[in-house]
Amino acid sequence: MGCAITKVISDPLQRKKMMADGLGASPLIPDPSILAEKYVNEIRQDVSSMGARLNVIGLIASSDKPSLVYAMATKQKFDKVGINYDLRQIERLQLEDAISAANRNTDIHGIFIYFPVFNNQHDDYLRNQVDYRKDIEAGSTYWTKKISANDRMAVSGDQSRKAVLPCTSLAIVKILTELGIYTDDQERPMDGKIISIFNRSEVIGRPLAIMMSNDGAKVHSFDVNGPLEFVDALPSESNITRERALMESDIVITGVPSSSFRKISCGEIRAGTICLNFSSTPNFENDIGKMADIYIPRIGPMTVAMCMRNTLRLFTNFHQVNPA
Predict the structure, then answer these.
(1) Is residue 312 part of a domain?
(2) For residue 251, is it left (φ>0), alpha (ψ between -120 and 50) or beta?
(3) What CATH number does the domain containing 98 carry?
(4) Does any domain span residue 142?
(5) Given a cut of 60, is residue 211 above it in pLDDT?
(6) How many angstroms separate the Cα of 217 from the Cα of each of 43, 51, 195?
(7) Do 72 and 174 have their domain in common?
(8) pLDDT at residue 15 above 70?
(9) Does 261 lie in the same domain as 176?
(10) Is residue 285 part of a domain?
């Protein structure tokens, strides 16, 4: 394969035709906004048909300009589908009280917190202060434990209420689904696939590894403490190197929010690899397109769409007239 990342093609069908015609020298670089459109339109229709006023509060304890721009963009997307989004900028030491107030307020149906706040374990504490019935990011242990247990229900024993999934992990699966890589018409759509994930956080990387291995993949999961291997949703110790894991992977997913991470280059992956980055920091070298078949450098719009989807599900599960 040849040139670097220059050609942006948003239509997977067009990409397949180009490959069939022998024109696929550049990687497909999907636009996540276009891939998310289907879900956004479905959410807009569902909100309209419900005839109810859904209210979400977004709490940001940062003056960082890019974070504020992202927060405003999130608000606009929620508002456009008919979900009222109240964005509040507060001091970080006020965040716990703000979460408690939002938990108590029955007019608020969803809570979105912009992390990192303290960038340490206190963030995990704050994440778990959110009432699980309002946790549209699905990052609290109430929801992440359900993934480990393969529990698909929001409330044990109630088949009518489905669980929500961490929005970033779900967004990655949905992007791969829209590109025809993750086929949801099979019981184990990732059977035979090998995936490397560089992130094992409790809210994104680990749930994603469990989800994908539950769907048949062998997952090499990396963080600063070294690798683990996930098969059938269960982790085991591993001594595989970064180099070997990358070279045997069909899909490489990165989410390392640090400029000190050694970016993955085209020489480390095999031809035809699918590469996806969900970190705000680039984790792939610019030459990755020489070997990657598909390169997804950002997923933000799909993540927001999945948060909106979770908002609807939580409202239906817990905030309508007849919740248990």
Answers:
(1) no
(2) beta
(3) 3.40.50.10860
(4) no
(5) yes
(6) 30, 41, 7
(7) no
(8) no
(9) yes
(10) yes
* 115 shares its domain with 235: no
Q: What is the mean pLDDT of residues 218-226?
A: 97
Backbone phi and psi for residue 85, each to the nearest 5 degrees, phi listed first = -120, 110
Active site residue 275: no
Out of 167, 266, 275, 307, which one is annotated catalytic? 167
| 234: CATH | 3.40.50.720
Give 235's strand partners: 230
Residue 289's pLDDT is: 93
Compute the distance between CA of residue 143 and CA of residue 309 in angstroms, rounded to an integer: 15
Q: DSSP label at 201?
A: -
Rounded-to-integer distance, Cα 54 and Cα 237, Å: 44
Instruction: Give the tokens for residue 298.
Output: 């950002």
pLDDT-derived band at 324, boundaries 50, 70, 90: very low
Q: What integer pLDDT is reported at residue 266 of this predicted model? A: 97
pLDDT of residue 17: 53
234-248: average pLDDT: 98
151-168 mean pLDDT = 95
Range of the domain at 227: 169-301
